[in-house]
Specification:
By secondary structure, the chain is α/β, with parallel strands linked by helices. The protein has one domain: Rossmann fold. The protein is built from seven helices and twelve strands. Strands 8-9-10-5-11-12 form a six-stranded mixed sheet, with helices on both faces. The protein has a four-stranded antiparallel sheet with strand order 4-3-6-7, covered by helices on one side. Helix 4 crosses helix 5. It binds adenosine-5'-triphosphate and magnesium ion. Adenosine-5'-triphosphate binds next to strand 4 and helix 1. Magnesium ion binds next to helix 1.
């Protein structure tokens, strides 16, 4: 493979799938500005599995939201899949977020009135305006280890672990390159959390880049690399 970049003493053959170049995020508040991210630079190679750790309020969720294009950097540049986010139109940004990024949250964030099948299909419907998924929902259901009979159930009828599997299936439905997970096991008991981490490890092995925020060092061990944030800085 062609050599594309040399970083320090490490030779990288892949372009980073995510690049933050001196990114800061400042929230202006009446009693003074809050610097949630302070001059963060970061390269993420395709297929990486990164844990983001740090004390409460250190900027972990802000980092994830900025990478997820849910929040805009105050300073600096963000590149996702080689594209400078600051140069995209609103429509291009919406497309990129939908097609390249999948989100998994601590609270699962499933839509309570929709069935499991409808929840998983939801991002696909937003994209194609059609519900024809040609067995994709069933395939994803198998992939995340959910029984197919649960597809007709409502999220409230499922255990926390099952709900998180639905959320992972939903995050995968548009086949994004990147999965962003904010405390994905935060609402689960240890045993269920381990099963979800085994699933995320499998998904990473299938080529997805994963960035995962966690407080728990045992959960961070599943990642290949850990980034520590303190006061909005990588330390
Ligand atoms: N929308 C916002 N408006 C104002 N300040 C914010 C906003 N979002 C986050 N902050 C502030 O930015 C800082 C970083 O917050 P962030 O939520 O990223 O921390 P965190 O590391 O995810 O914390 P936790 O572990 O508690 O989830 C905090 O001081 C927080 O109060
Ligand atoms: Mg947070």
């Amino acid at each position: 493979m062609e050599e594309k970049g040399v970083k320090g003493d490490r030779v990288s053959t892949d372009q980073p799938v995510i690049r933050l170049d001196h990114v800061s995020k400042i929230y202006p508040l009446p009693f003074g500005d809050v610097t949630a991210l302070d001059d963060v630079s970061l390269d993420v190679e395709p297929g990486a599995f990164i844990a983001v750790m740090g004390p409460s309020g250190s900027g972990k969720s802000t980092l994830l939201n900025v990478i997820g294009c849910l929040d805009v950097p105050t300073k600096g540049d963000l590149f996702i899949a080689g594209r400078n986010i600051g140069e995209l139109s609103d429509d291009e940004l919406t497309d990129l977020r939908r097609d390249t990024l999948g989100f998994i949250f601590q609270q699962f964030n499933l839509i309570p009135l929709l069935t499991v099948r409808e929840n998983v299909e939801y991002p696909l419907v937003l994209k194609t305006r059609r519900r024809e998924s040609e067995g994709l929902v069933e395939e994803l259901t198998r992939r995340v280890g959910l029984e197919e009979e649960l597809l007709s159930h409502k999220p409230s009828e499922l255990s926390g672990g099952q709900q998180q599997r639905v959320a992972i299936a939903r995050a995968l439905v548009n086949d994004p390159e990147i999965l962003l997970c904010d405390e994905p096991t935060g609402n689960l008991d240890t045993k269920t959390g381990t099963l979800i981490m085994e699933l995320l490890t499998e998904v990473n092995g299938q080529g997805k880049t994963i960035i995962m925020v966690t407080h728990d060092p045992r959960i961070a061990e599943y990642a290949h690399r850990t980034i520590n944030l303190v006061d909005g800085k990588i330390v």
